[in-house]
């Protein structure tokens, strides 16, 4: 039996994906959830954006005015937090149903303890079924990282977005970390890196 097997589930561009699901015409376009950019003079930040918008250099936390400068043809949508909270609650209820106790760490992220799986291969099968269940329930994708600790699971979930599944066994850990920049460690910003 392998020791800890932790999964980190992260919904893919959650707010933007909920808006695109609601209005499929937005699919394939750069979609930004955040404040009104007011032709580049707006205040506020990008809450999240679609992967099409990220291709232009946009990202969460970026000033909305800068996002407009980088991608003025993006579709800017104000956040619908109550709707996102309802979708999140349904997803987290599903995760509890499938995995028992979970640790929800944000509106679109949770840690799952898959240590009851005897091996990483079995945990991967469970993760695939979780991804399928989330897609069936909400029509949304998520990325899952599986590793021997929370921090490595979170780093793994970032590796194959969107709709990814990355498995880092204890024996693969050194090789996995060696390929990543220091800034890939959660909590390490530009100055610390």
Report the mean per-residue pLDDT as an integer. Answer: 94
Helix count from the secondary structure assignment: 7
What overall geometry do the principal axes of the alpha carbons give? globular
| Unreliable runs | none
Kindly report the spatial arrangement of strands forming the biggest sheet.
Answer: 5-6-1-7-8
Q: State the total count of DSSP E strands.
A: 8
Radius of gyration over alpha carbons? 18 Å
Tell me the β content: 15-25%
What are the defining features of this structure?
193 residues, alpha/beta, 3-stranded mixed sheet, 8 strands, 19% strand, globular
Provide a brief overview of the structure.
This protein is α/β, with parallel strands linked by helices and 193 residues long.
């Amino acid at each position: 039996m392998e020791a800890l097997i932790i999964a980190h589930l992260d919904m893919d561009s959650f707010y933007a994906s909920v808006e695109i699901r609601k209005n499929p015409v937005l699919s394939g376009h750069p979609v930004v959830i955040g404040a009104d950019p007011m032709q580049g003079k707006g205040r506020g930040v990008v809450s999240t954006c679609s992967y099409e918008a990220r291709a232009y250099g946009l990202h969460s936390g970026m000033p909305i005015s800068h996002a407009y400068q980088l991608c003025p043809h993006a579709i800017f949508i104000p956040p619908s937090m109550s709707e996102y909270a309802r979708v999140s609650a349904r997803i987290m209820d599903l995760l509890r149903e499938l995995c028992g106790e979970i640790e929800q760490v944000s509106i679109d992220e949770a840690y799952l303890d898959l240590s009851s799986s005897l091996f990483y291969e079995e945990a991967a099968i469970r993760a695939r079924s979780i991804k399928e269940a989330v897609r069936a329930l909400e029509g949304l994708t998520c990325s899952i990282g599986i590793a021997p600790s929370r921090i490595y699971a979170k780093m793994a979930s970032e590796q194959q977005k969107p709709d990814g599944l990355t498995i880092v066994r204890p024996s693969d850990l050194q090789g996995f970390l060696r390929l990543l920049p220091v800034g890939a460690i959660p909590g390490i910003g530009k100055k610390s890196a």
